[in-house]
Structure to design on (430 residues):
């Protein structure tokens, strides 16, 4: 069948230098490409304008969020097929300047411009964050956290389920419930930290209070949880009250840099350190070291990316920076361990739980898709589409080892040299 789809497929293949791996349906109803598998639906010419104005991941994300493109069929399969074109071209992928020297590339761009029409710079969807340089001041961090978390506790409840834990679960079997796997993760953190009755625990980036409640209810700890999100804090306090734990759990809207009532016996940082940034990471590590009592433990649960051959710096993902985690930065595991050691910590254990996050994300996507109509009543269609794409693409990224997640256990070892850890640490007793 001819029409816009054939012309679009041909132009995209000239630009990409290879076949488009999915079937395309254009705005005029025409189709082109493989008969089997998912279909990339290009609903209007504005989608092409977005791709031309911001080639690559960000342009495609804008088109997805705005509803200019969608997928019919298996979204995961579509993303797998498109990964080699969009995300996984590797360090040897040609630069724009190199591509422009190819006659086929130039002809493809001209073809896309003719199909797209004018204007070529459509306004970004309203869900896109207003970004500034990654300053990581108290003000910019508060604004970034608000963009991500203050979108409604009901929406997060729909996606995360009753556990209200927004970090990687810890699975034993694929058919285990999400709530059980999240409970097991909270218990694993408590055991690694050696949380016991009467101990003071600081939960940095406490979210909706799930870890604080677990540590207090199951292990008798006294917990201070800090978050920059007003909405998170409000629900966390209600959950603490409903659990009858207001005398042992305190939830604060506070920057971790402003916590001044240490020392604590243990500190949990679960899915928070990704927000800290390269320039502030050593300050973060040193501050947590100062807040711990001698012999105190830190559990740093953090997403990482593989190192590149020629650098160890932090990395920002354009789609995630614009729509999900403004100012979020991912570093290699080795960089994180080095910074913790520079701050004075003794790193005692590192556990990779990469596959666990893929399983978690797939459950969250299912929750969102099962509750799609309710989600659209809680947030904008664009915001729901952001989450659908972000979580599905992230699940594949974890499965393909493009990113990982690690639990790093570190100790503020006292001058005596006694870490207080058992000889066989993976027992996690005491």
């Amino acid at each position: 069948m001819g029409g816009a789809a054939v012309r679009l497929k041909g132009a995209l293949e000239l630009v990409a230098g290879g076949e488009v791996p999915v079937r395309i349906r254009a705005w005029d109803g025409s189709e082109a490409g493989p008969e089997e598998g998912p279909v990339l639906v290009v609903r209007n010419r504005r989608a092409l304008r977005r791709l031309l104005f911001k080639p690559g991941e960000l342009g495609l994300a804008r088109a997805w969020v705005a509803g200019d493109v969608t997928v019919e069929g298996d979204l995961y399969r579509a993303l797998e097929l498109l990964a080699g074109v969009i995300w996984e071209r590797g360090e040897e992928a040609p630069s724009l300047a190199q591509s422009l020297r190819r006659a086929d590339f130039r002809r493809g761009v001209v073809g896309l411009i003719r199909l797209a029409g004018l204007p070529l710079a459509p306004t970004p969807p309203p869900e896109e964050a207003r970004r500034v340089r990654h300053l990581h001041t108290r003000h910019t961090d508060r604004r970034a956290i608000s963009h991500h978390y203050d979108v409604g506790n009901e929406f997060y409840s729909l996606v995360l389920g009753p556990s209200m834990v927004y970090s990687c679960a810890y699975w034993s079997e694929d058919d285990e419930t999400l709530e059980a796997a999240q409970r097991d993760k909270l218990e694993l953190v408590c055991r690694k930290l050696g949380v016991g009755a009467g101990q003071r625990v600081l939960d940095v980036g406490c979210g909706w209070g799930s870890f604080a409640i677990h540590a207090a209810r199951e292990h008798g700890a006294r917990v201070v949880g800090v978050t920059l999100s007003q909405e998170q804090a409000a629900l966390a306090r209600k959950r603490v009250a409903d659990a009858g734990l207001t005398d042992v759990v305190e939830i604060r809207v506070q920057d971790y840099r402003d916590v001044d009532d240490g020392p604590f016996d243990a500190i949990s940082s679960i899915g928070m350190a990704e927000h800290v940034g390269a320039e502030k990471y050593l300050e973060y590590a040193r501050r947590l070291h100062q807040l711990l009592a001698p012999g105190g433990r830190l559990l740093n649960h953090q997403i990482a990316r593989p190192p590149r051959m020629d650098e160890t710096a932090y990395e920002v993902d354009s789609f995630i920076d614009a729509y999900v985690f403004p100012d979020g930065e991912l570093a290699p595991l080795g960089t994180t361990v080095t910074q913790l050691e520079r701050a004075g910590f003794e790193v005692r254990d590192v556990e990779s739980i990469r596959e666990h996050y893929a399983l978690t994300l797939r459950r969250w996507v299912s929750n969102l898709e099962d509750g799609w109509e309710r989600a659209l009543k809680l947030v904008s269609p664009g915001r729901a589409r952001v989450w659908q794409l972000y979580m599905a693409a992230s699940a594949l990224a974890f499965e393909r080892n493009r990113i990982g997640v690690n639990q790093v256990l570190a100790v503020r070892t006292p001058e005596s040299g006694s870490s207080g850890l058992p000889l066989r640490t993976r027992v996690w007793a005491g």
